[in-house]
Every structure is written in C-alpha cells, then in structure tokens.
Design goal:
membrane, transmembrane helix, sigma factor antagonist activity, about 25% strand, alpha+beta, transmembrane, about 35% helix, RskA_C
C-alpha cells in the first residue's frame, strides 16, 4: 500500500461508518451501496463498523413497550380510520435501525402478505434494503436465520417484459451466488441453501436484470439494478 492510497482508504472507512449510522443522504447511500457490490474492501469496512456498533448494544436487555405505544404510533402514521380497520400504510425506507424494525411490524406483522402466504417473524434478526440509485426499484429483504428463510417485499419496480429479477448473495470477496429469481408478486419467500446460511450476515444482496427464468450461466449477466448490505436489527 502506498502513502498516496491511504487517504482514500481513510475516507472510505469514515464513509462506511456514516453509512452504518444512517447519516448519509439517500443519494449518497445509494452510491455507497452500488460500490459495495464491486469493492470487497469497502464491504469489510462496513462490516467492521456494523460489528462495533452491534457490540455497543449487546449488553442492553430487550424491553417490551406497552401496547399503548404501538397504538399511538399506528394512529400518528395512519390516522384513526386506518387504526380501526387495521389497513397498512405506505412508505418503507424510513432510515435507521429503529425505523427498519417499525417497517417490519407494518409490512409483515400486519399481514400485507396474502393470508396463505408465509409471514416473516417480527423478531427476525437481519434486514437489507435494496434500492436503485434513481428509486426505480426498491426491495426490502428480511432474513430469519433460524429457518434459513428470506422474506422479500418489492415496494417499487418490476422486471422488464420477458425478463426476470434475480437475487444474489455476495459474501466478502467470493463470487455472487444466486438465491433465486424474485417472484412476480410483490412479496414472496426464498429459501437460502444451508451451505450459504452462515454467510448472510454482513454480506451484500444484489438484484440483477436477467433472462426469463434467471441467469443461464450461474453468474449475473445483466445490469445490477439494486443492492444493499445485510445488517443485524
């Protein structure tokens, strides 16, 4: 490593920390996530920050909020009419870990899935927000490591006619591994193979544009449309 390279590395480390804390603007965060897909050293920097921040809260005992707290949040978000009917509202990417937990409750806990569809547990430990730089594709993924189940919810965007959206796991410097083609429905479930389950934490999830049925080569062949790191909740 040359002395000239070090300032850029330090700036990237600071940038990774700001991203982990949710301090970047939506545009800067999207640009950072796009770099995560192709830069292993940046993924390592983000993973180090995420591990450090998680350790700071490791000794804090979980607290169960009173029922009135949820009622108040629901009322502020949706109004009295929605609170009575239990209809979910819109808006996912509220930023920050606490907002991510609230989104999980709204999206999965209130049953936006069809009644016969599996429902993600609200205490699933891992979350990833995948978003295109222009917002044309936004997907949230919730991973339950106890069952190896990945719950995906596509907020905006869809595959182009005759094409498919394929989800990839990128762990460290390893090549992308397909987790399957996203369902045509906005929400669905993917089973993570057992051999990959211990690689999800700290990895990056990415979505590429592929032929109908998925990549014919076992590697991404089309453009990477959205990406985001997997973080603990």
């Amino acid at each position: 490593m040359s002395d000239q390279d070090q300032p850029d590395r330090d700036e990237d480390r600071i940038l990774a920390g700001e991203y982990a804390l949710g301090l970047l603007s939506p545009e800067a965060a999207a640009a950072f996530e796009a770099r995560l897909v192709r830069e292993p050293e940046l993924r390592d920097a983000y993973a180090a920050w995420a591990e450090d921040f998680a350790a700071m809260t490791g000794d804090i005992a979980p607290q169960q909020p009173p029922a009135r707290v949820w009622a108040g949040i629901e009322g502020q978000l949706f109004g009295a009419a929605r609170r009575r009917t239990g209809l979910p509202g819109h808006g996912w990417l509220w930023g920050g870990v606490s907002a991510g937990v609230a989104a999980l409750v709204l999206v999965f806990g209130l049953g936006i899935f069809r009644p016969q569809a599996p429902v993600a547990p609200v205490d699933a430990p891992y979350l990833a927000d995948l978003a295109a730089e222009d917002g044309s594709l936004v997907v949230q993924a919730v991973y339950d490591d106890a069952t190896g189940t990945l719950f995906v919810a596509r907020e905006t965007g869809a595959a182009a006619p005759g094409r498919a959206l394929e989800l990839w796991l990128i762990a460290g410097e390893a090549a992308p591994v397909s987790l399957g083609v996203l369902p045509e429905e906005a929400r669905g479930v993917l089973d993570v193979p057992e051999a990959l389950r211990d690689r999800v934490d700290g990895a990056v999830l990415a979505i590429s544009d592929e032929p109908s049925g998925g990549s014919p080569t076992g590697a991404p062949t089309g453009a990477v449309l959205a990406a985001g790191p997997v973080r603990g909740i």
